[in-house]
Write a structure and sequence with these properties.
320 residues, alpha/beta, six-stranded mixed β-sheet
């Protein structure tokens, strides 16, 4: 993936007419509480309320004329499907989204409102990915992976470019980011290593969904049992041969796991300090910093708030 940094910089320009730069906001209250200089990268404020619009918009932008006619197919637990539907609608590209029945209902409704065709499977998230790939191959429709796609990863990497530009090269000591399939962490990490090499990339996983973590520990992608988690946006297995695996091997410096209670506590902390509702995946990154706060006292850090797509009832139930 030696050409990934260049692809990320190209994506940084390609998505700009459609995807705004998200703010990097200093949090005085939480900086005081954690005894560090904490800024939030606010991708929860992007269109559809998640970072996924970056990769989806970049991928749609590189499609050829034939693919624009046939449309695209994808699989998602919610945010990626919403992002592809959003980007497809703006480009006039038909979108079909395969989703597991376990996905959050509000996210599925949002996908349909954005104009995509929804196919719901009573199966784990990885089965939705496999079935979407099979449909695409049989019907000649391009499949857009939530993470296992070079242009998607490049699009997600634009968040790292923005962080480096907003904070200044080598001024941040660390960036905390949740990890699922590795598209966000791999893309962001690649950009950070290229533009701000002294900044450490801290990958954070919910204890209930650690597929990429176990793969990194084992040196290969392996089957891992998944359990329900507030961080539904990072849930699901990593498919064999995913391009994100070797990228994450190279760019994630530190690995942290957090409990469901820690995720909920972090979501509440953000709500109390900043009056933002963020989803579980964003809580994961914040929980990682809160758990390891002693290591980062006096340091300058950023936490990626990757999305806000959580139902009010679930949010209130989680934070108590």
């Amino acid at each position: 993936m030696n050409d990934l940094p260049a692809a990320i910089m190209a994506a940084h320009a390609a998505i700009r007419p459609h995807v705004p730069v998200s703010p990097l906001e200093y949090s005085g209250q939480l900086s005081d509480a954690l005894d560090c200089e904490l800024s939030f990268k606010c991708d929860h404020l992007l269109p559809i309320g998640a970072f996924k619009v970056r990769g989806a918009t970049n991928k749609i932008s590189v499609l050829g004329a034939a693919a624009r006619q046939t449309g695209v197919v994808t699989a998602s637990t919610g945010n990626h499907g919403m992002a592809v539907a959003w980007a497809g609608a703006r480009a006039g590209v038909p979108v079909t989204v395969y989703v597991p029945a376990s996905a959050v209902r509000g996210k599925l409704d949002a996908i349909e409102r954005l104009g995509a065709r929804l196919v719901v499977l009573d199966a784990p998230p990885i089965n939705a990915e496999l079935e979407a790939r099979r449909y695409g191959a049989e019907h000649g429709v391009p499949y857009i992976s939530p993470y296992n796609d070079f242009h998607v990863v490049a699009g997600q990497g634009t968040i790292g470019v923005e962080i480096a530009e907003q904070a200044g090269a080598d001024t941040l000591d660390a960036v905390f980011v949740c990890v699922g399939g590795g598209g966000l962490a791999g893309g962001l990490g690649t950009a950070i290593k290229h533009l701000s090499p002294k900044t450490r990339v801290v990958g954070v996983w919910p204890e209930n969904s650690v597929c990429m973590l176990r793969a990194l520990e084992a040196g290969r992608i392996i089957d891992v049992e998944e359990r329900p988690t507030l961080s539904d946006a990072t849930a699901g297995a990593v498919e064999e041969g995913s391009i994100t695996f070797p990228i994450c091997q190279q760019v994630i410096d530190d690995r942290v796991t957090v409990s469901e209670k820690e995720i909920a506590t972090a979501m509440r902390a953000v709500a109390e300090a900043e009056h933002w509702i963020v989803e579980g995946a964003a809580g994961v990154a914040m929980a990682g910093l809160m758990q390891r706060k002693d290591e980062w006292r006096g340091k300058k850090v950023a936490v990626v708030l990757c999305g806000r797509n959580i139902g009010v009832d679930r949010f209130v139930g989680a934070i108590g």
